[in-house]
From TrEMBL:
Organism: Pseudonocardia acidicola
UniProt enzyme class: transferase
The organism's place on the tree of life at top rank: Bacteria
Record protein name field: Trans-aconitate 2-methyltransferase
Primary localization class, coarse: cytoplasm
Gene3D superfamilies: S-adenosyl-L-methionine-dependent methyltransferases, Vaccinia Virus protein VP39
Family to which the UniProt record says this protein belongs: Belongs to the methyltransferase superfamily. Tam family.
GO molecular-function term, one example from the UniProt record: trans-aconitate 2-methyltransferase activity
Keyword Transmembrane helix: no
Keyword Methyltransferase: yes
PANTHER family: TRANS-ACONITATE 2-METHYLTRANSFERASE, TRANS-ACONITATE 2-METHYLTRANSFERASE-RELATED
NCBIfam families with a match to the protein in the record: PRK14103.1
């Protein structure tokens, strides 16, 4: 998985917006009495407690590859493990796996999914949610700026490639013999404040850029990117910026 440095506080600045897809995903998981529930890529652990509350008799396992995120989760009382998802495999008692806004950082995840599902016990649930907005202006403008002479080569390839389409996820998961439910949603988020789209992507998509640049370079990059984002996502008279936020969901239940 990516070795990107994460800022839990900045990530949680948009907690309400980012949490909604998690709840919509979890609503499609029909497990009643799972033995073990895994939060695969738990981030700062703010949603792991939702899993524990829904299934209070289950063992809840949380892991993330970011030391900063694991530390933040532990301050919430979550016994998070520092572990890369690519090295993880479900145990024989793993009845629910939830991975929320994680797998788009793992280019090999289409190869991992069939292995994980094959290792799950009968009747287990695997639920994933990933962003599907790599072609949106919020991401395309970053790529365009990084391709310009001043920035070309300054940032390693971010692996900013589209995730599989909903149909591709459906075909991949159905090929395992699982019962599959796949859908997509576009949330139109109401953002406010100065350069809100820049603030939004700073906590996620721009993390690899921040890691690659020194403080002066980072300030210069943001200064060039900000007006482009303002033009693509203009604020209304009331100060509201509407930000379309497309997500892809898939839930698989093993036979």
């Amino acid at each position: 998985m990516s070795d990107t440095t994460w800022d839990p506080a900045r990530y949680l600045a948009f907690d309400d917006h980012r949490a909604r897809p998690f709840h919509d995903l979890l609503a499609r998981v029909g497990a009643t009495a799972p033995r073990r529930v895994v939060d695969l890529g738990c981030g700062p652990g703010h949603l792991t407690g939702v899993l524990a509350a829904r299934w209070p008799d289950a063992t809840v396992e949380a892991l993330d590859s970011s030391p900063e995120m694991v530390a933040a989760a532990r301050t919430r009382g979550v016994a998070a493990q520092l572990r890369d998802v690519v090295d993880w495999m479900p145990g024989p008692d793993t009845d629910v796996v939830v991975t929320n806004a994680v797998l788009h950082w793992v280019p090999t995840h289409p190869e991992l999914l069939p292995r994980w599902i094959a290792a799950l016990p009968r009747g287990a649930w695997f639920a994933l949610q990933v962003p599907g907005n790599v072609e949106a202006p919020s991401h395309a403008l970053v790529r365009e700026l990084l391709a310009e002479p001043r920035w070309r080569g300054a940032v390693p390839d971010r692996g900013d490639e589209p995730v599989p389409s909903p149909v591709q996820y459906a075909e991949l998961l159905a090929g395992t013999g699982a019962d599959v439910d796949v859908w997509e949603s576009t949330y139109v988020q109401r953002l406010t404040g100065e350069d809100p789209v820049l603030a939004w992507i700073t906590s996620t998509a721009l993390r690899p850029v921040r890691d690659a640049l020194d403080d002066a370079g980072w300030a210069a990059f943001r200064a060039e990117l900000a007006p482009r984002l303002r033009a693509a996502y203009p604020a209304g008279a009331d100060g509201t910026t509407w930000f379309p936020f497309r997500r892809i969901f898939a839930v698989a239940r093993t036979p």
